[in-house]
Design goal:
This protein has three helices and five strands. The protein has about 80 residues and is an alpha+beta fold. It has a three-stranded antiparallel sheet. The protein is globular and about 40 Å long.
C-alpha cells in the first residue's frame, strides 16, 4: 500500500474507527486493511473505503432510529488546525 510506504507514523485508531462504523453495514468489514490513518511529515493521510456509500457512512458515523449518534464519524477526531474566519 502506497500510504504505508510514505508514512512516518501510523495512527491505528483511524482504521479501527472506520472498521467499527463499517461493521454496522458489512459483516466482513473487520477484514479490511485498506482503511488506515497515517502521518507523513505534517500531513494527515486517511485511506477511506472504496465505495462512495461507504465513504459517506465512515465520515458521518452511525445513528440510531431516533437520529442519536451511536458511533462518531472519523472527522470527530481531526482537530481544526486553521479555523476559517
Amino acid at each position: 500500500m502506497a500510504t504505508l510506504a510514505v508514512a512516518d507514523r501510523l495512527i491505528p485508531g483511524f482504521g479501527e474507527q472506520m472498521r467499527q462504523i463499517s461493521l454496522h453495514y458489512v459483516p466482513t468489514a473487520i477484514l479490511s486493511s485498506r482503511q488506515v490513518g497515517a502521518i507523513c511529515k505534517q500531513a494527515l493521510i486517511i485511506n477511506l473505503p472504496g465505495q462512495p456509500k461507504s465513504i459517506k457512512q465512515t465520515l458521518e458515523g452511525v445513528k440510531d432510529e431516533q437520529g442519536n449518534m451511536r458511533v462518531r464519524g472519523i472527522f470527530a477526531s481531526v482537530p481544526l488546525l486553521h479555523p476559517i474566519a
